[in-house]
Design brief:
8 helices, 30% strand
Length: 264
């Protein structure tokens, strides 16, 4: 799991460019693995401040290591909570989950949306964004719109309008990258955002013969675009947040397509 804000506030109010944080989450053994007698081989060295793991005697270092018993709330606090403030301050960012099929990417990104303890990063971000907006000055006007699409076999398909297939990535005059023709929905509450997510997930599964094979080979991208204007001085800010559930890492992926917008 990584977050890639263009400009992220780290340890203070001054943003740093091109900040990349890599957070490694380990899930526990599932029932099938336990029945098969599989063993958990990862070790967490003492005194590493949750930044190191040891596998087969070799040590790997990350910005943060999340152990199998960590909660969804803890995962969110460590990996994504700060980026909400960044987006509302006018910066762009990306959070994506990377790993093999069945490693827990979708559980981390979405979780069980209707269950407060089990919901993942996306619904928590949505709630946080609106809670921040509700607490801000009345002279700030916000417009939030969302898009939802997937990249499958090197093609981009709109999940809010399945008739839109093979969409193209473009760059505007301000060097901002966007998916031309992708449906944009204005939303005014967390509930509306979650309804859009459910709609997109439903469209993603329509007419797919083997859903697991399809979803393990495709990247889903949920985009939140937040625009705000100060009605007193007309100052405007705009921030985009890409929330990405990548294809299983054992499959062939198309990084050149993802990279066009993930770093913008």
């Amino acid at each position: 799991m990584s977050d890639l804000p263009d400009l992220a506030l780290e340890g203070g109010e001054v943003p740093r460019e091109d900040t990349i944080r890599v957070i490694c989450r380990f899930r526990p053994l599932n029932d099938a693995e336990e029945r098969a007698g599989s063993k958990f081989v990862v070790k967490f060295p003492a005194g590493s401040e949750d930044q190191c793991v040891s596998i087969g005697g070799k040590v790997y270092v990350f910005d943060k290591v999340l152990k199998p018993n960590c909660t969804q709330e803890f995962v969110y606090s460590c990996s994504a909570k700060q980026i909400v403030k960044d987006v509302l301050s006018g910066y762009n960012g990306t959070i994506f989950a990377y790993g093999q099929t069945s490693s827990g990417k979708t559980h981390t990104m979405e979780g069980v949306i209707g269950e407060p303890d089990l919901q993942g990063i996306i619904p928590r971000i949505v709630n946080d964004i609106f809670n921040h907006i509700y607490a801000m000055d009345e002279n700030l006007e916000f417009h939030i719109k969302v898009s939802y699409f997937e990249i499958y076999l090197d093609k981009i398909r709109d999940l809010l309008d399945p008739s839109k297939v093979n969409l193209a990535v473009h760059e505007d005059k301000n060097k901002s990258v966007y998916v031309k023709g992708a449906t944009e929905r204005f939303v005014s509450s967390p509930e509306e955002v979650l309804e859009v997510i459910e709609e997109g997930k439903s469209n993603r599964h329509i007419a797919v013969t083997n859903m697991n094979e399809h979803s393990s080979r495709s990247h889903s991208v949920f985009l939140i675009n937040v625009k705000q204007e100060n009605l007193e001085n007309q100052k405007k800010l705009s921030g985009k947040l890409y929330l990405v559930d990548l294809a299983g890492s054992e499959k062939v992926i198309e990084p050149h397509v993802l990279d066009k917008y993930a770093r913008k």
